[in-house]
Structures are given as structure tokens and as C-alpha cells.
Amino acid sequence: MIDASFSRQRHQEDRAIVEVRRLRAFAMALTIILIGLGGALFWDFGSSIMAALPSRASTASVREQVSTEILETAKGLGITQQQAVDQLQVVQDQLAAQKAETERLSEQIAAVTEKLDAIQQSVASISEPRVAAPPPTPKSHRQ
């Protein structure tokens, strides 16, 4: 009975670990995708600015605009990454709380099992009362 409880507990812990790993992988993939998109947007944006600007535009102005776009993209990526980290922290906190609850329940199950074993031993040690022979039935007298 306790083995089944521990098996379920272990299974739940394994599932929680897998969920944390999936969330980490998702956060990393999201970060890589966003960085790639930011780079692509920057590349495309930089190309379109260069094409749209007259040839006499100053290089400093173009660099300033590109720098501003890079900063905005970096801020957006930072915010997204922080959100992913926050979500991961929430999952880790939930996992820790679940683990503590599982340990508490396991201890309670162990205590109940010990009490049940003690009761079973107590009942087994009580000797069964001996059944007395039934009193003889009176014989009917023939008249």
C-alpha cells in the first residue's frame, strides 16, 4: 500500500520535472525565435531605411534610427525573456509546494499504516473465547 503511494508520488514528481523541462525548452525556443525575428526585422528595416533615404542623408542619422530600433527590439526581447523566467519560477514554486504536500501525505500514510498494523496485531493476540457446549436438551417424558 505504501509502495503504491510512493510509486504515485514518484510518478507525479517525474511528470512535474518533465513539465519544467518542457517549459525551459519552450522559453529557450521562444528566445531564439524572437532574436531571429528581431534580427530579420532589423536587417529588413535597415535595408528599407537605406533605400528610402536620399543619398545625401547623413550616416549619423541613419545609425541613430537603427540604434533606436535595435534598443526597442532588445527591450522587447528582454521583457519576453523575463516573462518566461517568471513563468518558470511559478512552475518551480508549484513543484516545490506539491513535493512538500506529497511528503506530508506520505508521512500521514505511514503513520496510519503503523496504527493499522498495531490494531491487527492486537486483534490477533486476543484469544478467541471458547464456546461452551450447549446445555443438554431435556428429554420429553412419555406418559
Describe the structure.
By secondary structure, the protein is an all-alpha fold. It has one domain (2-123). It contains two helices and no strands. It has helices at residues 2-52, 59-125. Helix 1 (2-52) runs antiparallel to helix 2 (59-125). The longest helix has 67 residues, at 59-125. The protein is rod-shaped, with a radius of gyration of 38 Å.
Fold blueprint:
Layout: H1 2-52, H2 59-125
Helix pairs in contact: 1-2
The class by helix and strand makeup works out as mainly alpha
- In percent, how much strand structure appears in the residues? under 5%
Biggest β-sheet strands, sense, barrel: none
Element string (H = helix, E = strand): HH
List how many beta strands DSSP finds.
Answer: 0
Instruction: Please report the distance between the alpha carbons of the first and last residues.
Output: 69 Å
Helix content: over 70%
Q: Indicate the radius of gyration in whole angstroms.
A: 38 Å
Seen as an oligomer or otherwise, the chain set is single chain
- Low-confidence region ranges: none
* Shape, principal axes of CA atoms: rod-shaped
> How many domain modules?
1
Total count of helical runs of at least 4 residues: 2
Average pLDDT rating:
80
